Task: structure prediction
Amino acid sequence: MGVVDYADRQSKHISRRIFVEVLRRLQMIDKMSNYSYIGFGAYQFLDFDLVHRSLGIERMISIESDDGLIDRCRFNAPYRGINILEGTATTILPTLDWSKKCIVWLDYTQRLRTDEMADIQNVALRMKPGSVLAITLNCSPGADGARRSELEAAVGAEHVPIGISDAKLGDWGLAKTQRELTTALLHRAFADRGDGTGWQQLLNIQYRDGARMQMLAGVVDDPPLHSVIQACRFEDMPEVSFDAEAVVIEVPSLTVRERQALGKKLPGRSFKDFAGLPASAIESYARYYRWLDPVG
Result:
């Protein structure tokens, strides 16, 4: 849970806002005030601030593993409702009260490893139906020639899918494999519960501001809630994905003047080179501009 400054990371910012918009639809299941939020706030608390202001969630827990940051985290906590707990996710998660619906964001900065897999399983075995689990992972593929061996060392050779090669782990290949591993782990955990609960994926986002990252999110479903979850109409959001097809966010860094000029052309469907920027960059910006803060 290293500290990363996301203030100028547009793609991370967009994925965070998409996530909150997905969460807003949970109001069909229960009042947002009945949910708690659990995450890694570090000392910026960006997602905590957004969740509180956008959704009105008051009960929030931030897990902080760096004992050298605890005092700074407590000073910077923006709201009284944030309870900062010192320790790793592995040690803290089993001690929490799981009797109410919650939103858990395991916002890792590293690739998937056995430690993260244990955390994910830990949460899946405990969450109530109607709760949401989000997971962020680094998915930079590493050096060609060492990708598969690094993955085996990270998650255990027995978990690496048959046929996975260094070539298949290049580009966004590691993201696809990590999603496959995480999804299989979640399905096993819910099956082990034996209470009819299951996992329904809602987000499969890949984004890059520097390092390649991925975000997976889903809701805990069970038979009594199934029709209510359907009524949330998650599929109405084009950013929602229920399968392996990822939404890729790579937004170009534009000046204020470029964004203002482009704003007068949006929404639009066809773009040519603009201000020296290629059409592909403009198309990517046009797809996600509404998730960014407005320019003056």
Q: What stands out?
A: Residues 2 and 109 are 7 Å apart (CA to CA). The beta strands are 36-39, 59-64, 82-86, 102-107, 132-138, 198-208, 212-221, 247-249.
